[in-house]
Amino acid sequence: MFDYFEQFNKLDPKIKEKVSNPFVMGVVDELEKKYGIDLAMVVMMVMIKAVLVNDLAIYLSDQFSLSEDKAKALATDLKEKVFLGVASYLGMDLSQLFVTKVVGPKPEEFKKEVPAPTLDEYGQEIDAI
Question: What does the alpha-carbon distance between residue 120 and residue 69 come to, in Å, rounded to a whole number?
Fold first, then answer.
């Protein structure tokens, strides 16, 4: 553990500051509470590249016995909220971040026929009640 801490402290101060400033440390604290895991060592290990950021979900699953879904969710939270400022330094694959699933009508819903409106004797549409 001391070795990781020592290596982390040898990082460029500008890079180190991006993951150790008060705002990011607050985010890490929130994630620790949410997932019930101590993440300080994880952050240091990713920053010194002992754990590759693109393999973070696998590491979290193995290290903390998390389900695949929970490990992926935590890895995504860390990437989006903690490591985004150092993405190029870490060689992060940004293609899967901030991806939202778009939910829309199903194709069969487009095929439904809409009944013609009912018209009164003057040709005006009558509202169906």
Answer: 57
Q: What ranges do the domains of the chain cover?
A: 2-93
**Residue 64 exposed, middle or buried by CB count within 10 Å (0-12, 13-18, 19+):** middle
Q: What are phi and psi of 125, to 5 degrees?
A: -70, 135
Q: What are the tens digits of pLDDT across the range 88-112?
A: 999 988 876 766 555 666 666 666 6
Instruction: List the one residue out of 45, 66, 48, 49 whose CA is nearest residue 57.
Output: 66
pLDDT tens sequence across 30-65: 999 999 999 999 999 999 999 999 999 999 999 999
First to last CA, the chain: 72
Tell me the CB-side half-sphere exposure of residue 69, using CA atoms within 13 A: 0
Distance CA 104, CA 98 (A): 18
